[in-house]
Design a protein that fits this description.
Layout (H helix, E strand, L loop, with lengths): L1 H26 L10 E8 L3 H14 L3 E8 L1 H10 L4 E4 L5 H9 L5 E15 L6 E2 L1 H9 L5 H4 L9 E4 L5 H10 L9 E3 L3 H10 L3 E6 L9 H7 L2 E3 L1 E3 L3 H4 L3 E2 L3 H6 L5 E8 L6 H10 L1 H10 L2 E2 L4 E7 L2 E6 L1 H6 L2
Parallel strand pairs: 1-2, 1-3, 5-10, 6-7, 6-8
Antiparallel strand pairs: 3-12, 4-8, 4-9, 4-12, 4-13, 10-11, 14-15
């Protein structure tokens, strides 16, 4: 009887030990990803797809154990993805609103953000539209509904109701224009959402009365065949700066140099926001984009790097290009 009892207690001891070890393993939080390894999902505003496709491709080529699943979505959806934890990180054109920040505070998460680049909203028209330039005030008039016809912009143009074309009604571009001009009147009449930036180019190329609003990264890389293909289908308008007393009423296209100087008036900040509570893969990717190598990709794409010093180079009177500051490279080698 004593022998059986000892065996019984020994079995109980083994069971308890196994249970304790199992519980201990469950309490540990295994590290599934780090700055250069693992797998996460991120959401990127579709406006910035061209530049972040290059960033992700390069990041993957360097860090073989890292995998980013990228959702290219309208900006509003990207913020929803971040809040629902569908995506660990997002790329957008604005910061969190106070109400959005409050939602994260409720769950004890404090997102961090890093600037990636400076982008512009380009205005595009049909190839047969002879209007080359438009004033900042005329853009405001069009968006407020005060200038509904092309002939009101320029008397030499054929009469036609201006059609405003966007990638999505949840687009970051629409949100930017609403805040920039203090109106959403342009959403109430004669505006159309066509589901993607590529569709904006396609629609404008086929409709003479269309005025498209496009993230400039879709047409800014002179070495990218798709960018060149888009440019062959549409015209890109010049826009005057609102402060004519300083800029002298000149008109500017959304070229890289004019984005950098602020002469082109429709400029946005491309921002990365992460909800990651530790130093994981989102942190690693954000660090890469903000690094010298990631910023070179931004520079090549035709946007303006946010964290890498640049300098303007005057090629000839009133024409500029921008290039990387060599001091930055020497200080970071």
């Amino acid at each position: 009887m004593k022998k059986i009892t000892n065996k019984y207690y020994f079995a109980l001891l083994l069971a308890f030990a196994f249970f304790t070890i199992s519980c201990g393993d469950q309490k540990q939080d295994p590290i599934e990803d780090g700055p250069t390894f693992g797998s996460i999902t991120i959401s990127v505003d579709e406006n910035f797809k061209p530049i972040f496709e290059s960033q992700v491709e390069t990041f993957h080529s360097i860090y073989k154990r890292a995998h980013l699943t990228v959702r290219y979505v309208p900006e509003a959806q990207a913020f929803a993805d971040l809040l629902s934890d569908t995506s660990r990180m997002i790329v957008v054109s604005r910061l969190l609103t106070p109400s959005e920040s409050s939602e994260f505070e409720k769950i004890k998460i404090f997102p961090r953000n890093v600037k990636a680049a400076y982008d512009a909203v380009a205005l595009i028209t049909h190839k047969e539209n002879k209007l080359v330039s438009v004033t900042y005030e005329q853009i405001e008039g069009i968006l407020r509904g005060n200038i509904p016809n092309w002939r009101q912009v320029d008397a030499s143009l054929p009469s036609g109701e201006i059609q405003l074309i966007f990638d999505s009604y949840n687009s970051g571009i629409i949100n930017y224009l609403k805040n920039k001009f203090g109106t959403d009147s342009f959403l109430k009449k004669n505006s159309f959402a066509v589901k993607s930036s590529e569709a904006v180019v396609d629609y404008v190329s086929k409709n003479k009365n269309a005025l498209g609003f496009l993230g400039v990264s879709w047409i800014s890389d002179g070495d990218d065949p798709k960018n060149l293909s888009f440019l062959s289908k549409i015209n890109v308008m010049e826009v005057s700066h609102p402060d004519t007393s300083v800029k002298g009423g000149k008109y500017y296209q959304p070229f890289q140099a004019y984005i950098a100087t602020g002469d082109y008036p429709l400029v946005r900040t491309v921002t990365m926001i992460s909800r990651e509570p530790r130093t994981g893969l989102a942190y690693g990717f954000m660090s890469f984009v903000a690094s010298e190598r990631g910023q070179r990709i931004i520079l090549k794409s035709g946007l303006v790097p946010a964290t890498m010093p640049i300098r303007l180079v005057e090629v000839r009177s009133e024409n500029f290009s921008i290039e990387r500051d060599d001091k930055y490279e020497s200080n970071n080698n």
